[in-house]
Amino acid sequence: MHEPLKGADRLTLLEELHKQYAKASTWQQRWTLWRKRWAWYLVVRSARAIKRLTDILIASAALIILSPLFLVIALLIKFSDWGPIFYVSTRVGKWGREFPFPKFRSMKIQADQEKKELMKQNIHQSVGTFKMKKDPRTTWIGKWIRRASIDELPQLWSVILGHMSLVGPRPPLPEEVATYTLKDRRRLDVRPGITCIWQISGRSDIPFDKQAELDKEYIESRSLLLDLTILVKTIPAVIMGKGAY
User: Fold this and answer.
1) Residues 6+ apart with CB under 8 A from 234
2) How far is CA 82 from the centre of its chain?
3) Which of 16, 68, 106, 109 is surrounded by the most beta carbons within 10 Å?
4) What's the CA gap between 201 and 99, in Å, rounded?
């Protein structure tokens, strides 16, 4: 039984078919290559359709099952400082398209105003990302929901809308994308995800360069089985809380 084609293999196959088609001298040869090309196209489209359907079904089920938790978290956030329940930022998705990125608010209302001053303490400042292990802007409820990754749950709605996938590279901020090299922009070739391969390998403790490398590996070898494996491994990673801040 043949193994399914992975990302890099698909690209190699397409390039090879193009070369063979250009060299074909008879209509019979061109017809054979044309059929191979369409067969390859249908396989890829089918895999994408199955992934999309899986995303919608799992995200919808999770939203229904977790709705009581959503209500409790929403009330705790609201009563903590009477500010908004959700924090919506702009992130960059597939092919560089920007989209609204919702999270349960885990920081003070004036957090954005304090960010510039705190960027001097950014542990990843050399690569343009902003993460602090002990961010003073985080609220008491925010510390808990961030450690448990509960603040990310509203992104299930983004999955249903098609902005995100359950598994894929984490969506960057526009200002982070502005610092990307051509190699880094490879991360924008697929839908961003709620979880990813480096989320189960140390999360924010992993340097940006390593994150980009792991994302590239995922993109080139992505499959439904790999997605399922990452989803399953995300559960203990969240429970352990390593690299979550």
Assistant:
1) 195, 199, 200
2) 30
3) 106
4) 27
**Tokens 């398209």 belong to residue:** 97
* CB contact at 8 A, 199 and 234: yes
Give the separation between CA 26 and CA 192, rounded to whole angstroms: 43
Among 171, 168, 186, CA closest to 224: 168
In the chain, what percentage of residues exceed pLDDT 90?
Answer: 47
Residue 4's pLDDT band (cuts 50, 70, 90): very low
User: Which residues neighbour 238 within 8 Å (Cβ) at sequence distance 6 or greater?
Assistant: 148, 149, 244
- Name the pTM for this structure: 0.77
The domain spans of the chain are 9-51, 66-240
Residues 25-77 pLDDT 10s: 566 666 666 666 666 667 777 888 999 999 999 999 999 999 999 999 999 99
* 54 Cα distance to chain centroid: 15
Residue 125 C-alpha from the chain's centroid: 21
| Residues 168, 196 contacting (CB under 8 angstroms) | yes
